[in-house]
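Subgroup meeting minutes
Present: P.N., E.W., G.H.
Scribe: E.W.

1. P.N. recapped why we're keeping a running log of single-chain structure predictions: easier to compare across weeks, and new members can see raw inputs and outputs side by side.
2. G.H. added today's entry (66 aa).
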Amino acid sequence: MSLKGFHIAFVTICTFLSAFFLLWGLVFSRDQPSLSLPFIIIGSVGMLLMPVYGVYFYRKASKIIL
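Output recorded in log:
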């Protein structure tokens, strides 16, 4: 696996982890409400920014010849 492929896979895994944080903050943390808001914020920001960064990196990396 190339470095570019590993980077895209890592961004995808981070996006899924952000989705898990968001889901956990919304559904599973009803017994600890003080922790739910930070996880919702972190998950939402990650779900929005990671795919944007992934597209940016993919476009930039396709122009680079290694």
